[in-house]
Design brief:
319 residues; mainly alpha; MetI-like fold; two-stranded antiparallel ribbon; 12 helices
């Protein structure tokens, strides 16, 4: 038999023989095949991330660059203000070949602002979700594992923080000093951490008395090893789900602050919606672009989180 007959493609190999990349791609394909809505959301998320990461670096314009055009009514001898200058601001222009979405009220390229807004949203979304998920997961795992008075005190603090209206808490934290990206990011992270801790605590309570945990205690494993070697991996599924959902809520919260002109400086979808409502009758695209991008992004992350929840829940895997 020819040696060619012994060649086996990676698709025909046993799972244990496949590379990590092959297993990952097969897992993603299986997820998209089983969860159609989640697959569409995953594609949207990948596109949004690609636009946010690459877009600002390929656009030919700067985010704050304003444009002018030749003034067809220019008359050097005229005393009328609209005829005195040889150039006029390209303000609120319609879409053209040079500006695919037109320009805003300050004659800046709208597409460029949208791409920079995507980058900003991803920074706040992933940054706040990462910090809040890590803090909340650690707090929830430790609180549930040790229990007793320690758990009682921690949970009363969590209850008190959750009882505070989220947006009011953000306003208080942002307005205590100069509004910077770091301050807004920390405010969003602190706000989300308490909700994460509640979910992770519930998952930890469900596994902390399992047989493998008791076996680890019997053989003398330290609390730190039990927490991070045995409990943490077994509550990873809800952590992954809440991480994806928190991204969308963080993006929406940051856009809300920007809409009220309380966010950090820079292009933001929330700011676009706020500016666009002033010109909605004559230039609705200003609001529609910012609001549409915000809606699609938050919806995509939320739908992806729901699909991941269904896929990672053992009770729903066979459905």
């Amino acid at each position: 038999m020819s040696n060619d007959a012994t060649i086996v493609t990676s698709w025909g190999e046993r799972p244990s023989e496949r590379s990590f990349l092959t297993r990952t791609l097969l897992g993603v394909w299986d997820f998209m095949r089983r969860r159609k809505v989640g697959g569409v959301a995953l594609v949207l998320v990948v596109i949004i991330i690609g636009l946010g990461v690459i877009g600002p670096y390929v656009t030919p314009y700067d985010k704050d660059e304003s444009f002018q055009s030749e003034n067809p009514n220019y008359d050097p001898d005229s005393l009328k203000e609209e005829e005195m200058s040889p150039f006029t601001s390209l303000r609120l222009s319609n879409p053209t070949g040079s500006h695919l979405l037109g320009t805003d009220d300050l004659a800046r390229d709208l597409l460029t602002r949208v791409l920079y807004g995507a980058q900003r949203s991803l920074i706040f979304g992933f940054g706040a979700a990462s910090i809040s998920t890590i803090l909340g997961a650690v707090l929830g795992i430790v609180s549930a594992y040790f229990g007793g008075r320690f758990d009682l005190v921690i949970q009363r603090i969590v209850d008190a923080m959750i009882a505070i209206p989220g947006f009011l808490f953000l306003l208080l934290m942002v307005q205590t000093g100069e509004t910077t990206i770091l301050r807004v990011l920390l405010a969003l992270s602190v706000l989300g951490a308490f909700g994460v801790s509640r979910v992770v605590r519930g998952a930890t309570l469900a596994v902390r008395n399992d047989v493998y945990i008791e076996a680890s205690r019997v053989i003398g494993a330290s609390s730190g090893r039990i927490l991070f070697r045995h409990i943490a991996p077994n509550v990873a599924a809800p952590v992954i789900v809440i991480f994806s959902v928190t991204i969308g809520s963080s993006i929406l919260a940051e856009a809300g602050l920007a809409f009220l002109n309380l966010g950090s400086p820079g292009p933001s979808w929330g700011t676009m919606v706020n500016v666009g409502r002033q010109f909605f009758d004559s230039k609705p695209i200003l609001s529609l672009v910012g609001g549409g991008a915000l809606t699609i992004t938050v919806l995509a992350f939320n739908l992806l989180g729901d699909a991941l929840r269904d896929a990672l829940d053992p009770r729903l895997r066979g459905s």
